[in-house]
Write a structure and sequence with these properties.
This protein has 451 residues and is of the alpha/beta class. It is built from 14 helices and 16 strands. It is globular. The mean pLDDT is 97.
Length: 451
């Protein structure tokens, strides 16, 4: 698709947005959203015709890129056949989506509860865990994000929680492993893993094991920094949960559906949770959809006891048709394999080469098409390029980096002192190299703030 230039249309879109749209996570008068005219594949463009390679996959959801013709056609066909229907009925698109998802989830996670997105999937997973165990507390990690609804934002471990956290949600936070910024004075991954597990079990002991319903973890934390857990950590958490009768919830909203080079990140570690949340990549974000994959034991809890929860649009036919088409496209076109192969052969070596050239890069980490560069002022001290949760002038270095990336023709994922490399999973080798070259230019600007 060739971008069409129409600045007047862009100005009208921007004017209506500024007059009426209330944007999330933003001070409304301090933002300047780009007016987008179109998108296709790994690119989108504005009304002036400037095209950007999207290194964010939207919000890490456009796993098969924009406007995939087979998914667009499936949505159109479903709309012509049955646009919507209530969730209490058996509908073909809903049943088939659940079947395809259950075929790919680990272990016996064979029952699928559909939600409208990731945050409400987390809400329902934690409700299920509490009802299943009869216990009130949930443990979650710092350096995590689980959603913006009331319970989900309380289990979140980043500053977006603060404004809503009244310490009354039954949530206790703990430190998960992250060797680059270890809270355990560890020098090796083995030490970090062992000490993080000891810290978690001690936290449970002091909270009272009989009060803890669930531990929720992002299998690979996403927005908080793409910190792949060390070998043995998730297996150790599984053992701790089994020891104390605690439900293990893995949040795969961002990491799932191929992002890590496997259908689910849990497959990387050979761990089967009791509940697993998903959204985003399940249908590449084409129509809002999320859900909870439920183990046999927890499903049995509600076999003759009603589950007290539901959504008007649970398993919406248009969303489920998009999921069916997306999963089939991913299987037919080898998209999970593409993420695994090009992630290892192009993305990782490319990012590590950038780190060798740029003193602003303190750490490179990730897997598949799920990577982060941690930007620092000083590699030796690991001082972040900007302070934690910086805003305004304090965030000038990252703002300059982001502006330089856009000038170079890519749209970067920037969060705190990091940039994430999370393109569509079917991005080509040439597109990935284009993105790496643009980051190379932008990091030269970040380098100016080091030393």
């Amino acid at each position: 698709m060739t971008p069409q230039t129409d600045p007047r249309a862009g100005a009208a879109v921007k004017a209506a947005d500024r007059a009426h749209v209330f944007h999330s996570w933003s001070a409304q008068e301090l933002i300047d959203p780009l007016a987008v005219a179109g998108a296709e594949g790994s690119y989108f463009w504005d009304h002036d015709g400037k095209r950007y390679l999207d290194l964010t996959s939207g919000l890490v959801f456009a796993n098969i890129g924009y406007q995939h013709p087979k998914v667009v056609a499936a949505i159109q066909e479903q709309a012509a056949r049955m646009t919507t229907f209530a969730p209490a009925f058996a509908v073909e698109a809903r049943s088939e989506a659940a079947r395809l998802i259950a075929e790919r989830t680990p272990g016996d996670l064979d029952k699928i509860f559909f939600t409208n997105g990731g945050a409400d999937a987390v809400e329902h997973a934690l409700r299920m865990a509490r009802l299943h165990t009869g216990r009130p507390k949930v443990l979650s990690a710092y350096r995590s994000y689980h959603g913006g609804t009331q319970q989900a934002v309380n289990v979140t471990g980043d500053p977006r929680r603060w404004a809503s956290d009244t310490a009354s949600a039954g949530v206790v936070h703990f430190w998960a492993p992250f060797l680059y910024r270890s809270r355990f004075y560890a020098e090796t991954e083995e030490q970090e893993c062992a000490r993080a597990l000891e810290h978690l079990e001690t936290t449970i002991a002091f909270e009272g094991p009989a009060t803890v319903a669930a531990i929720i973890l992002e299998t690979v934390p996403g927005t908080a920094g793409i910190m792949v857990p060390p070998p043995g950590y998730l297996a150790g958490v599984r053992e701790i949960c089994d020891k104390y009768g605690i439900v293990l919830v893995l949040d795969e909203v961002m990491a799932g559906f191929g992002r890590t080079g496997e259908w689910f990140a849990a497959d990387l570690f050979g761990v089967v949770p009791d509940l697993m949340t998903f959204a985003k990549g399940v249908n590449s974000g084409y129509v809002p959809l999320g859900g909870v994959a439920i183990s046999g034991a927890i499903a049995e809890t509600f076999a003759r006891r009603p589950y007290p929860g539901g959504l008007t649009y649970s398993g919406h036919p248009l969303a489920c048709a998009a999921a069916v088409a997306t999963i089939n496209v991913m299987a037919q076109e080898g998209i999970v394999e593409n993420a695994r192969t090009l992630g290892a052969s192009v993305v990782e070596p490319g990012l590590r080469a950038l780190a060798e050239r740029h003193p602003s890069v303190g750490d490179v980490r990730g897997v598949g098409m799920f990577w982060a560069l941690e930007l620092v002022k000083d590699r030796d001290t690991r001082e972040p390029l900007v302070p934690y949760n910086a805003a305004g002038e304090a965030n000038a270095a990252m703002a300059a980096f982001g502006a330089a990336a856009k000038q170079a023709g890519v749209w970067p994922f920037v969060n705190m002192n990091r940039t994430h490399f999370v393109p569509p999973l079917n991005a080509s080798e040439s597109e990935l190299k284009e993105g790496l070259a643009a980051l190379d230019q932008a990091l030269s600007v970040a380098d100016e703030y080091t030393g």
